[in-house]
Amino acid sequence: MSGIGLAGMPMPEWKIRTAEGKEYIFDSLEEAVEALPGHGEGATIWQRDVYRTTPFVTRTQKPWRQVEG
Fold this sequence. Notes:
With 69 residues, the protein is mostly beta strands.
């Protein structure tokens, strides 16, 4: 869901943060939940809302918040 017409709309983004501090970004909660077991014990899922300003550039007004893990 990115594109010029959607540039002003907030879009959710998820990440997995491993116990070692590595981070992996996902487009949906379902993808992150499915991938979580493969990232080891202590991995957590986080979410934030982002604004796509141009392709591959995102902005956010709120920090990441933990949702699972």
